[in-house]
Write a structure and sequence with these properties.
The chain is mostly beta strands and 182 residues long. Helices cover 0% and strands 58% of the residues. It contains no helices and 15 strands. It starts with a strand and ends in a 7-residue tail after the last strand.
């Protein structure tokens, strides 16, 4: 069995529960996702940290996401797919320190296969990323500033009104109950 701890820098690590030795190998997580589908995630670890490929898929073998890690940080290509197998997102990351990767580029596709014209990140790290449900409605929108997540909004079920939001200033997280819309 595996457990979690922190390394000397306070960063998360997977360890063997009884011996506390950092885990090296492949970890498999299995659960039922909100659609009632079986979902599996295979993650590669080396010395307790995610290193290499992490891949998620549903019970019929359709890949839902594929990411690469180095020392627990996103590196290189990261992809997401709709449950019908069509591409949802392609992004590229680069580690900038021990705790953080920055998003270098992002492309998003709607379930219809059309590319989302509103999702982007510029050379200064400012941008927007839309995410869509399988039926084509917007699930949420992320906003970036200087390569950091700064805000996220969630529309209602009809996609016409704001249901909830959060804002991160760098020092404090504000949830939708604290944000006043004028």
């Amino acid at each position: 069995m595996l457990g979690q701890t922190q390394d000397k820098d306070g960063l998360p690590m997977e360890v063997h529960k009884e011996t506390r030795v950092p885990f090296t190998g492949k970890k498999v997580d299995a659960f039922t996702c909100w659609r009632g589908l079986s979902h599996f995630i295979y993650t590669s670890f080396q010395n307790g940290k995610r290193n290499g490929l992490k891949i998620g898929f549903i019970g019929n073998g359709t890949i839902t996401d594929r990411n690469y890690f180095k020392d627990n940080l996103f590196i290189g290509l990261s992809e997401k797919f709709y449950i019908n197998g069509m591409r949802q997102e392609r992004a590229f990351y680069e580690p900038i320190n021990k705790r953080k990767s920055k998003l270098l580029s992002v492309e998003v596709w709607k379930p219809s296969g059309k590319r989302c014209p509103y999702s982007y990140i510029d050379e200064k790290g400012n941008g927007v990323r839309y995410s869509y449900y399988e039926d084509g409605k917007i699930s949420h929108i992320l906003f970036f500033e200087k390569f950091d997540y700064r805000a996220e909004i969630f529309p209602d079920d009809e996609g016409t009104k704001l249901e909830s939001a959060w804002l991160f200033t760098g020092k404090r997280m504000y949830d939708h109950k604290e944000i006043k819309l004028l």
